[in-house]
Amino acid sequence: IAEAPPTSIGHPKQLYLLFFAEMWERFSFYGMKALLLAYMVTQLKFPEPKGYAILGSYAALVYTMPLFGGMMADRFLGYRKAVIFGGILMSIGHLIMALPQGWSFFYGMAFIICGNGFFKPNISSLVGTLYAENDPRRDSGFSIFYMGINVGAAIGGLLCGYVGQRINWHYGFGLAGIFMLVGLIVFYLGKNSLQHRGLPPDVKNLKKPVFAGISTEIIIYAASLLVIPVVVALFNQYHFMDYIMFGLGAVSLVYILVMAFRMDGMARSKLMAALVMIVFSALFWAFYEQNAGSLNLFAMRNVDMHVAGTELPALSVNNFLPPAWVIILSFFFAWLWPVLNRKGIEPSTPLKFGLSFIFVGLGFYVFYAACHMGTETGLISLTAFILGYFFIICGELCLSPIGLSMVTKLSPARMVALMMGIWFFASAVGEFLAGKIGALMSVPEEVVNNPVLSLPYYAAILSKIGLWSLGIGVLLICLSPLIRKWMADVR
Ligand code: GLN
Q: Using CA atoms, how far apart are residues 408 and 415, in angstroms rounded to an integer?
């Protein structure tokens, strides 16, 4: 950050409040996710395809709820109340998961899902409120925020991964819960520094009794709690998720298209540009999210974790590496983009999106090549594993933080929170697809303990992911001049 260009120096101090609140929230979120699949497969003894289906459904719902949480905040609650309510639900969810009781597992996840819907999109939108529409610091503000996300994710993955895998799975989940509470407290104590930002659009209306003396605010909270048993039921009948994701995907696409066509020319084409990039981002996450899925099991089974005579805990390593690379490479990209900009050759947002697929493709090919070299022992080298993630994270940094900022710039002001919800919904679709792709890497029971035999199951699909990602990258690069044109004056 020290070498960042002059335009990114001097951010509003509230950015650091949001940074730390989000940092601890992501600690808990990624700490828990690091354990999830391995816990289901090794402890609950779920067959692997079921493990992938539940993981995919959980992560899909986690990122679907922001659609509703974003909408409720825009219309009624304002961002601040939404973040606090979401934080409370997430804390309860993580702490429930620390209980060893059978019922607690699905309920814990359901609370996290509902809570995330209120927390995640609205804390991101709050970052957007710190900058005027064309403030040049907006992008770097989001990059700093993204750094907070990843500091939390790195420590969370490392610690919860270690505690869960090596000491006790439930202590790992519990640790996540404690730090979610820390995030919530940080936000609660600091929220007044946000001044007028993120307050409810109409407090009187929100507090006014509308039904049997109950206010809109309480109705929203109560309705959200009712969603929890529905989510639990869905986990028990996870096949329904196919219809839900397809239905919601179609509805949101049509809704945005209708909204776009009601707007004037410039606003419409900007929204269309955002929409196209959002659709591509879903595919990006489908590949990327193998990290929290298949690559967890791959790391446990087929990556040589021995370093200097000790065996590292695979879940910690696999979940620490991506955010750690994000932190390191963020500095590089924070330096690179302005340099390219000054030379007039900074890639446009859609071109960066295209490059992100190329990087992810290269990353998966590194894993694949390493599989080829490791056929004798069934283990790939840790160095190759680290290198593969290097490329994948270059891809992430060309898409994810840029996408957040892009959404706040290309959407009309009154639709920002909704569009933020749709941006995260693309992650939901991606996560769901990631579960399906992961399931293709299910390893039969009889070979799970034999790395030589399990390796080919991974190698075959890793190479396909690489190929698809490169192909989509090329397509998007070809489309990028057109999308760039639709973006009009937005850079
Ligand atoms: N890693 C980022 C985060 O947790 C992006 C996640 C996403 O959009 N899928 O915020």
A: 9
